[in-house]
Amino acid sequence: MLTRYESNRKNASLRSIFYNMMEEANVADVAVRSSSYGLLLETVKRLNTIDYLLIRFIKKKKYREMDPFLRNILRIATLELKFNYESTIRVEDIVYKLVANRLNEEDAKYVKKVLKNVKAFNFEESLSRLSQNEQISIKYSHPTYLVNKFVDLFGFDEAIELMQKNNQKKAIWLRVNTLKFSVEEAVEALEKEGIAVTRDKHFPEALKLVETETPIPLTPIFRDRYIIIQDKASMAAVYALDPKPGERILDACAAPGMKTSFISQKMGNTGLITAVDNNKARLKKMGELLEISGVKNVELKFADSRKFSEGVYDKILVDAPCSSSGVIQSSPEMKWRLNQEQVNMYSSIQKDILKNTLKLLKKGGVLVFSTCSLFPEEGEKVVDTIKDKVTFVRPKILGSEGYEGYEFSSKVKRLFPHKHDTLGFFICKMKLGTIRNP
Q1: Domains present along the chain, CATH in parentheses
Q2: In the structure, how many helices (H) and strands (E) does the chain have?
Q3: Which of 258, 219, 282, 326 minimizes the C-alpha distance to 16?
Q4: Tell me: the pLDDT tens digits for 189-215?
Q5: pTM for the complete prediction?
Q6: Rg of the Cα trace of the chain?
Q7: Among all residues, which ones are annotated catalytic?
Q8: Which long-range contacts (CB under 8 A, 24 or more apart) does 87-95 make?
């Protein structure tokens, strides 16, 4: 799996790689699936730190040109030796046998020697020779680009707090599909599956996973979409929209459809949701999942929301495509591909979608703009371009105020992994009418 990830870092999804590999290898054992996915995530999460350690004992050029099997088994072994503090296995011996069987005795001896040096290496002492932000980058396993951005946005101490949270296991949030049964019935059914949850104090449909014997995606209750895996921040965007029965709503960037199905749920399957996306494959999959979920009030449209021009709507949700800087905790591969050019590109797309969809909103209607981004370029700076056309409304949801420096900062919401135990999200609610912001 690591080798596949490494060969396509710019576009790779760890989740897709994992599921494809499990299917190809016909792996059904829950313990094997869980442990292998955990190793994959944790290794990619700490990739620059692991490589920093290994390059202390292998010349950089040799390391880059090394057999991918060798390089990646060294990475996993380094993770076990330096970061799995509860590990009781003899890592060097296991790796020696694997390499000897797969390659040869000479490589096995070389790997064992490298790992012996890694195990004895004083990691903290070596960092003292680096600049402050380089130290943070290696110690907390984030690229220097993100370190610089986070320190600028949050200050030194909070930036570290955020990066530490990104390296921890993410909270799993479940949404009860009340189109199929009640929250009480869901909790009871989950308990019968050996799944412990707690009910959320903000959103009645939200449950937080505490413990499970079986991965949620392998349970019948998930397969039949009685429950849906959906982050609490994503639910918050729908709560900000506040859909009502009988309304006509546009979901402008709809796939994969979790928010669409939640909107339908809040509408009691009445009214009409027009769900637009510019990816046919994702739209097709979304249609199948909506059907399983019992959603009946959605029409799917294959279109680009920068140009879409059909209809007039009571409410519009623009959960825009973005750099995904807010999902690093669950998808650590994202942090290694982020750059300013990419952020600027998405910001431009978001502005175009927002300006176009506003034309489709009826007078007095509500539009919610959201992104799973931590950057103002994909939040405050986007809505700043239309501030003279709308009235900003503070959504009645959890969250912190927006970043300082914008006159509407107190009206928008930001959710953070280290503050709200959610993905990083920006949520802005606006109303189209004659009243203007001061």
Answers
A1: 2-130 (1.10.940.10), 173-229 (3.30.70.1170), 232-431 (3.40.50.150)
A2: 20, 13
A3: 282
A4: 999 999 999 999 999 999 999 999 888
A5: 0.95
A6: 24
A7: 372
A8: 91/115, 92/116, 92/119
